[in-house]
Each structure stands twice: as C-alpha cells, then as structure tokens.
Amino acid sequence: MKCCMRSALRVTAAAACTLWLLGAGSASAPKTKREPASQYPSLEAVRDSVLALVRRTVAPLPPKQVVAAPSHFNYWSPPDSVAGYTVRVALKEGPECRADLVGEALMKAGWTPNYQFSADGTDGTAMGYVMKNYFCEVRGRWDGGDDMDTTYVVTSCELIVTCVPWREEDRPK
Q1: What is the Cα–Cα distance from 135 to 163, expressed in whole angstroms?
Q2: Considering its fold, how many domains does the chain have in total?
Q3: Which residues of the chain have a pLDDT value below 50?
Q4: Are the C-beta atoms of residues 144 and 120 closer than 8 Å to each other?
Q5: Burial track 151-167 (b if 16+ CB lie within 10 A, e otherwise)
Q6: 11, 23, 73, 114: least surrounded by Cβ within 10 Å?
Q7: Which domain holds residue 124?
Q8: Are 88 and 67 in contact (CB under 8 A)?
Q9: Backbone angles phi, psi at 76, to 5 degrees
C-alpha cells in the first residue's frame, strides 16, 4: 500500500506530461461548471469550518495534532501574497495521508475545484478549491526519495490546507 502512493503519483505525472506534449496543456483540465453557491461571513468562519473538516477527515487523530494558525499565501500568477489561515497536520503514511480525502470532503461541503491551482509530483500534491469569496489550497508533502529507487517507502507526510480571500482576477470570466 505504501508504494502505491508513489506509483500513483508517477502515473499522474506521466499522464500530465503526455497531455502537455500533445498540446492539451491546461486547456484539457476540467472546467469549473458552476459558481460556488455558498458564502462564509468571514475568513475566521472559513478557518473554523475547514479546521473541523480536516479533523473529521484525519480522525481518530487527537484534535491537538491538527492546528490552525495565521499565515500568508503566495499566489502563483501574478506573484502576490495575501494573509489567511493554514491548517497543518503531520501524518504517518497510509490512507489518512491522502490530500484527496480532504478535497473530497471540501467538495461535499460545497467547495468547487479550481484546476488553475493543481500540481502533482513524486514528493507532493496540491489542489485548489473555491467557495464564492474564498480559496483553499490543499497540499500534501512528503519525502519522495530517489526517483530511481523503486524500493523506497514513504513513511510520513504533512497535510496543509491554506485558506485566503479569493482574488477578483482569479474568478472565471
């Protein structure tokens, strides 16, 4: 099971490279078909909701292992930084290490994937989600080891969810 995460990431990276080489690029990414309907009254409300969601997703970890703190988020393009909140949890390798579980929980809560903020590799994954006036990036980080070592096993990871106000220029036109 532990080696499956590494293999799945390699397959994902290979598929992304193939699409790029074929000229599909980001145009092939699924488009957000709906504008997120719900809205939070404040960034603090987003923080509290996402913190509870992450705690439920990684249960039965003690709640004190899942912490939220003020942070800054660096947008990819154009380069910019904004204040927000980050929820962090250190995990041992296994199904609870998968950032996609948090993404699925966010979607069930009404968040919409934002494919402009997605990346996968041998040492981590990232995916963006939006809800009306807020953006959250779900990131999983781990030591991917040497790409040539097929026996390497990931033993731990860090799950990071950063939520910030959603910039006007990032909204679909």
Answers
A1: 6
A2: 1
A3: 1-33, 36
A4: no
A5: ebebeebebbbbbbebe
A6: 23
A7: 2-170
A8: yes
A9: -75, -45
